[in-house]
Design brief:
This protein has 200 residues and is of the alpha+beta class. The chain contains 5 helices and 12 strands. Strand 11 and strand 12 form a beta hairpin. The termini are close together. About 4% of the residues have low confidence.
Length: 200
């Protein structure tokens, strides 16, 4: 599985809908998508007993953006971040206390533009299992692990829709033991699932 994951990820960020960003990094992203806020998240994978698990977080209810939602650790690009990987690793360390020394970055998934105005770059990384999470209680209400096999299984990908800003929008939902993963996080996982299937 580790080898398959390496085969399925991108060596540089791109964007869905067949707009290839090539080797664009933060400044090119801002110039090309001026109405979207660049952000980067980490898709952290830890291997235990020959199975991979995905670390996810639940945001606190008082946050301005995506309050209470289940998501990857990460956030908007800061001026001090030299790369999108730097953003993802910094935010992960700040939010859940996962040291960058324990993370092996292996590549990117397709970028994901959200209806709330963010352009999310997803960085995929293998996490050494000897970590001890320390949550930032202001931003993170919970952190938990989900079997990668569950979230990547197409049978667990449900399609729903709702009105948002006057438009009917459809999105994916993944229900893991009552924890509802939806929106950008579910969309990114569906994209990851398709990439792995194509790599096979």
């Amino acid at each position: 599985m580790r080898h398959l994951i390496r085969q399925s990820v991108l060596s540089e960020p791109s964007i869905l809908d067949e707009i290839n960003l090539g080797d664009m990094e933060i400044e090119q992203l801002r110039a090309s998508f001026p109405n979207l806020t660049p952000a980067a998240v980490l898709l952290p994978l830890v291997e235990r007993d020959a199975e991979f698990y995905l670390i996810l977080t639940q945001r606190t209810e008082h946050l301005h953006n995506h309050a209470g939602q289940i998501c990857f650790p990460g956030g908007r690009v800061d001026a001090s971040d030299e790369t999108l990987i730097a953003t993802a690793l910094r935010e992960t360390e700040e939010e859940i206390g996962l040291s960058r020394e324990l993370i092996e970055v292996v590549g990117y998934l397709d970028n994901y533009a959200t209806a709330t105005g963010f352009l999310i770059s997803t960085v995929v990384g293998f996490v050494k299992p000897e970590f001890d999470l320390k949550l930032d209680s202001f931003e993170v209400a919970d952190a938990f692990e989900v079997p990668l096999s569950f979230v990547l299984n197409p049978e667990n990908h449900q399609r729903e829709s709702r009105f948002f800003k006057g438009q009917q929008r459809s999105y994916y939902v993944i229900d893991y033991q009552g924890k509802i993963i939806w929106g950008a996080t579910a969309g990114i996982l569906v994209n990851f699932s398709r990439r792995l299937f194509q790599a096979q």
